[in-house]
Specification:
This protein is of the alpha/beta class. The protein contains 16 helices and 34 strands. The chain folds into four domains: 136 residues, no CATH class; 139 residues, Sandwich (Immunoglobulin-like), CATH 2.60.40; 105 residues, no CATH class; 192 residues, Rossmann fold, CATH 3.40.50. A hairpin with a 2-residue loop joins β21 and β22. α3 runs antiparallel to α4 and α10 runs parallel beside α14. The longest helix is centred in the middle third of the chain and has 19 residues.
Length: 647
């Protein structure tokens, strides 16, 4: 049977479908805190109803989970806010009455609660729609927590949610909600030992005063293994390993694991906790501790993050790249091996110097002005990719890659300010030549702080033009509109910022010029001023794009400046993903306009055909390389979950 949250969600959806300004819906929307999961879920439901007539299944589940979470912290139980479904023409059961057993407060023994018969003179039910009443908290429910008698509806009406199956017994595959919970002191004295305690729980209550939304997990009766990886600020010196494995039982909570640090310098220090099932990223969270000379030790609030499906995807590999400005640490994660971190030695080379040497030739090839013939240009690209692989990747990481290579189904690079153009690398060893890294399997990136997003929206799309757009920008928009539809064209900066702040921003496709300078950074010149990543700061705080999880495609056909341009997309990707985008696509160097349009059209087409994000990227690259002699197919970098699909 559906629970209170599912019944309430059904009624809310029906009410807002009938009237987007329904008072009951707006009342609950007003009660939800700005930026809360309930507020975001309600706004997403309302927006999708207005746009397509009904919300999708993921949004419905999100609303159910948000209702459960919201009312778990209210003094009033969710049951007092649940919905009573009434249909005209309700008939009692064959026995004449429907009964529920509830425990009486006095005896604790069940008593029979009898449903009253329907009122006489009620017209028969003749339609498929429900008449739904939103029942607010009645005084009798405050006084008595008994379950209200239920009526069994007649007629044919499709449920928004399937009836829930009984919870599996212990020993069967258990599906339950899980949370990654971490606790770190809020303040600590300098030179003290600081403990980070991490565990996985079925309930956030008891450990946390606030919680993320629920998610459905699948853990077998034998349990599951989750790798916990921790990163810390330089002011915290790790005592022991920063990687531990949590054993999650089929039922109940895991045993906690402890990470210890020496608080060696004062200041505010951050700690990031990441969870992986094999090479599959699950979730992450961030904590802070303030270290003060002679200061007190003060407990901090626990932090809770939602765990995604607690199982690894076969062949999914993640390469983590972390840098503190002085050194770079690489680590490969897979469902087969958890390799130790590898510190990049000086012999690995400076990637900035190595890549800068290739930029001029890449620009010339993209512009069709290179000194090489198409065949020689292809050879130059290959030799450049091999050189970068040899120069910037530590030897031990290469060995681990070849150990995993035949098992890899997707390859994700998790990094923040990474300067390595992974899309250009060409792994090679004697007897093993499989082409560029991006030719072999889906290669995507993930910035730290980016949560998994299984569903992304790509239509209807809003198209953004820069002040001086590429020559074929309108042609590109016309071609994509035939595939994605058009929500509008924006070329004014204020209009774009208003859309981003509205909470209703859908997919964005930029057909533009993106300039870069060491002083001003990355910028898109628009009517009204330059659009720069810093103008997304409020959107990242409010998570303004999360309701739609849109794809943001920055198809920059030309750039200006002579600095390391391959790093210019990092700021855009971090900001858009932090604002809640489901995926981000950009170029690492200038690309030819016609090739850029061809790649975009192919990429969107594969997504609409049902391909996941990673495979759509791979297929678009493979198709373009066969048809275009320039290096455009290598220029695109994609951020997101390789298994994400469109709504």
């Amino acid at each position: 049977m559906p629970d209170d949250a599912e019944i309430a969600a059904e009624a809310l959806v029906r009410k807002v479908t009938a009237d987007q300004d329904d008072p009951a819906f707006l009342r609950l929307l007003g009660e939800a805190s700005p930026g809360s999961e309930l507020r975001l879920a309600l706004e997403a439901v309302r927006e999708q109803v207005g746009r397509r007539g009904r919300p999708d299944d993921d949004t419905l589940r999100r609303l159910v989970n948000a209702l459960r979470l919201h009312f778990s912290w209210e003094t009033l139980p969710l049951r007092s806010y649940r919905v009573k479904l009434r249909r005209p023409g309700h008939e009692p059961s064959e026995e004449g009455e429907e009964q529920d057993a509830v425990a009486t407060p006095e005896s604790g023994r069940p008593e029979q609660v009898t449903s009253p018969p329907p009122a006489t003179g009620t017209p028969p039910y003749t339609g498929d729609s429900d008449t739904v009443d939103w029942m607010g908290p009645g005084p009798e429910e405050h006084a008595d927590r008994r379950r209200r008698p239920k009526r069994r509806p007649t007629g044919s009406a499709r449920r928004l949610f399937p009836e829930r199956k009984p919870r599996p017994e212990h020993g069967d595959s258990a599906a339950t909600d899980r949370f990654l919970i971490a606790h770190l002191p809020g303040r600590a004295p300098q030179s003290a030992e600081v403990s980070l305690v991490v565990r996985i729980s079925e309930r956030p209550s008891g450990w946390a005063a606030a919680s993320a939304r629920l998610a459905r997990l699948s853990v077998t009766a034998e349990g599951a293994k989750v790798s916990i990886l921790v990163q810390c600020s330089p002011g915290l010196a790790p005592i022991g390993s920063l990687e531990q494995v949590l054993s999650v039982p089929g039922r109940g909570d895991s045993e906690p694991v402890r990470f210890a640090f020496h608080a060696r310098s004062p200041g505010l220090h951050r700690v990031r906790v990441m969870a992986f099932a094999g090479g599959t990223f699950l979730t992450e969270l961030e904590l802070e501790v303030s270290v003060e000379p002679g200061g007190p030790a003060v407990e901090g609030e626990p932090v809770v993050a939602t765990l995604d499906k607690l199982r690894s995807r076969p062949g999914e590999v993640t390469l983590q790249v972390r840098s503190d400005g002085e050194r770079t640490v690489f680590q490969l994660l897979s469902d087969s091996y958890l390799f130790e971190p590898v510190l990049a030695q000086a012999s690995a080379g400076d990637p900035a110097v190595a890549v800068e040497r290739t930029l001029d030739t890449l620009k010339q090839l993209a512009a069709g002005r290179g000194a090489y013939s198409p065949a020689t240009a292809a050879r130059w690209l290959q030799e450049t990719g091999i050189g970068l692989w040899e120069q910037v990747v530590p030897g031990l990481i290469k060995e681990q890659f070849w150990q995993l290579r035949d098992q890899i189904s997707s390859f994700t690079i998790a990094t923040s300010h990474d300067v390595v153009p992974w899309e250009l690398l060409y792994p090679l060893r004697p007897g093993s030549d499989h082409g560029f890294l991006v030719e072999q399997f889906p290669v995507l990136r993930r910035v730290f702080g980016q949560q998994r997003c299984h569903r992304i929206s790509i239509s209807p799309c809003t198209y953004v033009l820069s002040g001086r757009s590429p020559a074929n920008a309108r042609q590109e928009i016309d071609a994509l509109s035939a595939v994605l539809g058009a929500a509008g064209v924006v070329d004014e900066l204020d209009a774009l910022l208003d859309l981003l702040a509205s909470g209703r921003c859908g997919p964005l496709h930029f057909a533009c010029h993106n300039s870069f300078s060491p002083q001003a950074g990355s910028a898109i010149e628009m009517n009204g001023g330059p659009f720069v990543p810093a103008l997304l700061n409020s959107a990242t705080v409010r998570n303004s794009l999360a309701a739609q999880s849109p794809l943001v495609f920055l198809n920059a056909c030309r750039t200006a400046g002579s600095v390391p341009e391959y790093t210019r997309m990092v700021g855009w990707a971090q900001q858009f993903m932090a604002a809640g985008a489901g995926a981000f696509v950009g170029t690492l160097w200038p690309v030819r306009s016609d090739s850029a349009g061809a790649f975009a059209e192919l990429f969107y087409g594969f997504l609409q055909a049902g391909e996941p994000l990673g495979r759509a990227t791979l297929l678009a690259r493979q198709t373009v390389v066969r048809e275009q002699p320039d290096p455009t197919w290598l220029a695109y970098t994609v951020y997101g979950d390789p298994h994400a699909r469109t709504h």
